[in-house]
Design goal:
mainly alpha, two-stranded antiparallel sheet, elongated
Length: about 190
């Protein structure tokens, strides 16, 4: 009986280690966007992964990444909304709830309905928070980019296709397709830049 239990524990540990090897980088990036601080992000991720490991045998076909992301969001929400302290970082101008919605919706690509269910708010509230936080980030002074490449949306906003900027930068939901200029300052008819 002990031997069988020991083998199950070893299998569980191997599966979890493989999961962490593949998912920890993306989860850490999400945690860093949420907290704005590397040390706080590592603590948040460690807590979320520990909880995921504790529930590993009860996942029953559930995606462990979804469970870990949910634990990450829940732990961030509890800590950030409980203390209400502002953090620095790329999304430091946003409230904790705006930051969480933005990371879940745009960085992680979680559908509005699923995000609303996870946070316990109406879908319209998620949509409003996402739009408000994007407007806040876009209102940044012209000296810096409106949205840092690290927050590149995982899904198009409002059905707009993602495109690459003419300078070869990262995809952006806000960058419209433009026509290349000719040497005389006009545009090439019918051509679009990619």
């Amino acid at each position: 009986m002990r031997e069988r239990r020991a083998e199950q524990d070893r299998r569980r540990a191997r599966e979890f280690e493989a999961f962490v090897a593949g998912a920890a980088g993306r989860l850490l990036h999400a945690a860093t966007l949420l907290t704005g601080d590397q040390e706080a992000a590592e603590r948040l991720l460690t807590d979320a992964l520990a909880r995921t490991y504790a529930m590993w045998d009860r996942l029953h076909g559930e995606d462990p990444y979804d469970r870990a992301r949910q634990e990450l969001a829940t732990r961030f929400a509890h800590a950030a909304w409980h203390h209400r302290r502002a953090r620095g970082g790329l999304l430091g101008r946003l409230t904790p709830q705006e930051r969480l919605v933005l990371v879940l919706r745009l960085y992680e690509g979680v559908p509005e309905e699923q995000c609303a269910a996870q946070l316990g708010v109406p879908t319209e509230r998620v949509r409003a928070l996402c739009l408000r936080s994007m407007a806040t980030l876009r209102s940044r002074p012209a000296a810096g980019p409106a949205v840092h490449p690290a927050v590149r949306p995982a899904v198009p906003l409002a059905g707009k296709p993602l495109s690459t900027s003419a300078q070869g930068g990262p995809p952006s939901a806000a960058a419209p397709a433009t026509r290349p200029e000719r040497a005389d300052g006009g545009t090439t008819p019918g051509a679009t830049a990619s």
